[in-house]
Amino acid sequence: MTALESSIESVRIAAAATDRMKASDIVAYDVSDLIGITDCMLLASATNERQVLAIAEEIEKDLYTKGGKLQPKGREGIQEAQWILLDYGDFIVHVMHEEARDFYHLERLWRDCPRIDLELPEAPADDAA
User: InterPro entries per the record (predicted)?
Assistant: First the structure.
């Protein structure tokens, strides 16, 4: 398994944790050709500070227990819980309050990068009829 494949597998573990904690707008990009310091970026949104913090904690727990005892090299934004950045070296996770995500619109930085298939379950269709 290449380093990029390993990063993508870890990002999928983190994405599953965000999805389980009801995050929205979960997306990841392969930035390995654009940025030399990391391979992948994962972004997820939450509606309030408590949810931002809960999502970040769930990601850390799952990457440790399911991802080979991975621990972030750096953690930023824990106190404010508006934008938590978890730096795992080969990939970076951004858990953002919806308002912060709308304001900073990080996707524009990586719009030319390939999106990573996170293999998340599809949201149930609203077929009430």
Answer: Iojap/RsfS/C7orf30, NT_sf
